[in-house]
Structure formats: structure tokens, C-alpha cells
Amino acid sequence: MVFLFDSCICRRRVVVAKILARAIIVEVIRSRSDFKIWYGSCSVSNMNEYKDLNVWQKTKALVVRIYEITKAFPDAQGYGIAEEMRRSVIFVPCNIAKGCWGFMTREKLQFLTEARNLLFQLDTQICIAHDLGNLKQDVKDSLIVDIVACQKMLSGLISHNRERLEKKTTLNQPVEEKK
Q1: Which among 89, 91, 163, 167 could bridge 66 via Cys, Cβ 3.0 to 4.6 Å?
Q2: How far apart are CA 71 and CA 43, in angstroms?
Q3: Nearest in space to 70 (alpha carbons), one of 13, 150, 139
Q4: Among 89, 72, 80, 62, which residue's Cα sits nearest to residue 135?
Q5: Over the stretch 105-162, which tens digit does the pLDDT of each residue have?
Q6: Which residues form a coiled coil (predicted)?
């Protein structure tokens, strides 16, 4: 009976020791100067940190620009290309912000990839609007340049998060025992 009691205490001590070790590791990681890189571009401690990202700022400016440009589109189309362009562009910075709050790297990748895909969609819609005569060539070209710049920034963030995910999965692999 005493032996069972002692083994329970030993198991509890091991569990408590593991919990403390994890807490210490987390604190050490948080105290590092590259905390932003280790944990991604946003952390729980600062709710508005995604606003510091250049890609979020550029895509937000792109939203305003698209809304201003599509005001001049003809109303004859009704629910047409202008509304589709607005729908596509508004969700780009929103997905970037949501990606900052994805606590798992896979969630971040999902939202960042969706933001990049929406930029590809917007690129196509801009080409169609130009073909319909709603956009001048110089406006189209400047929008495409901005979109490509945002896509490149998002691709960099996606690559960075993929590398982190690969590192996490290799660190969590069980170590083979030597025989």
C-alpha cells in the first residue's frame, strides 16, 4: 500500500517537473530578442501588432485605392466587376490580421495563403475591368505593380512560416533508439 502511494507521488512529481520545464522554456524563448521571428509576426501580448506589418499597411492602402477607383465604374453592370473587386480586396488585410492570431503555424499559413490567393483573384478582375473599358492602361499597370509587391511580401511570410512548421515537425519527431 505504501509502495503504491509512493509511486503516485513520484508520478505527480514527474508531471509537475515537466510542466515547470515547459514553462521555463517558454519564458526563455519569450525573453529572446528574436521573439517575433520565433513566434511569428504577431503575439498575444500586443493586439495591434499586425498593423506594424508592411504587407498589412500596403494591402490596406490597396483597399482604399480600389474603392476609390471603382466609384467611377458604371452602375449599368449592377452587381458586377466593381463589387467583386471590392469583395476580393477587402479580405486581403483581414486575412493577414487573422493570420497573426493563428496560434498554430498551419493556421497562419492558411490565412496568409488565402490573402495571397485573393490578390491573384484581384489581378484577374483588374484585367477584366480593363478589357471592359473601366480602367485605363496606366491605372491598371500601377495596380498590378502594387499587387505583385504585396504578393511577394506575402510569399516571404508564407515561406518563413513553412520553414518554422518544418522545424517544429522535425523537433517533435520521436528519436530512434540505438540498438
Answers
A1: 89
A2: 37
A3: 139
A4: 72
A5: 788 899 999 999 999 999 999 999 999 999 999 999 999 999 999 999 999 999 988 8
A6: none
DSSP codes of every residue in 104-155: SHHHHHHHHHHHHHHHHHHHHHHHHHHHTTSS-HHHHHHHHHHHHHHHHHHH
pTM, whole model, 2 decimals? 0.67
Residue 177 covered by a domain: no
Contacts (Cβ under 8 Å, ≥6 apart) of 101 = 42, 50
What is the spatial distance between Cα 3 and Cα 39, in angstroms, rounded to a whole number? 44
Q: How far is CA 109 from the centre of its chain?
A: 6
Instruction: Judge if 48 and 112 occupy the same domain.
Output: yes
